[in-house]
Amino acid sequence: MVSPVTVVKSEGPKLVPFFKATCVYFVLWLPTSSPSWFSALIKCLPIFCLWVFLLAHGFSFLGAHSNARKILAGLIFSALGDAFLIWQEQGYFVHGLLMFAITHILYSSAFGMKPINMRAGLVITAVSCLSYILLYPYLSGPFTYLVAVYIALIGFMGWRAIAGLQLANDLWTWTKLSACLGAVLFMVSDLTIAVNKFCFPVPHSRAIIMATYYAAQMLIALSAVECQDVEVARKRT
Predict the structure, then answer these.
(1) Own/partner pairs, 4-9, CB within 8 angstroms, 24+ separation
(2) Are 110 and 67 in contact (CB under 8 A)?
(3) Based on C-alpha coordinates, what's the Rg of the chain?
(4) What distance in Å separates the CA atoms of residue 194 and residue 199, rounded to the nearest whole number?
(5) Distance of alpha carbon 68 from alpha carbon 144, whole angstroms
(6) Minimum mean pLDDT among 18-22, 30-34, 49-53: which range?
(7) Residue ranges of the domains in the chain?
């Protein structure tokens, strides 16, 4: 198993552009009330940097590992979702929702179906049901079922990421831990979006949403780096 220190030394420099782009977003803190292509670019820039991060490992790496290709595709759809959400008040919220729904399908496929880990599945199912029960009274029209489908998709993605973290059997790797933490942060980010949009204003919602979102995407991108180690560990199970 690769040590975290080795990971930081090998992957840290490749993530420097991502951290710089994230800092630019938070320093500029462009108002959401005035959507523009520039604000869309600034919001998507950290995700673009994660594309570059994966591409920096070479086309041969991406060609040899389907998990990495799926995560890269998920990042592409995420950037499209981010762009649509810039104009959510102009009627593009559902478009963004669709892009992120596709992202979660791709991530779920990348994380795979082994091991099953029904306990993790039951916990995520309970959390997802409670989230929908919280949101349901505030939903109307198409959002009644669109939000339900989206919660099911992100919940499934979270289950597949968490299921891979087999701490008890000592089969975990830093890539599995990274995927697990990334999925959980993604769920926190999206739940904050939903509560803030449909239920009531969440204090400092934008900072919470974007900080957890960027961290989630970085961790999920990192989980693709050692796909070969992940595949070997899966074969053991």
Answers:
(1) 4/174, 7/174, 7/222, 7/225
(2) yes
(3) 18
(4) 7
(5) 34
(6) 30-34
(7) 4-235
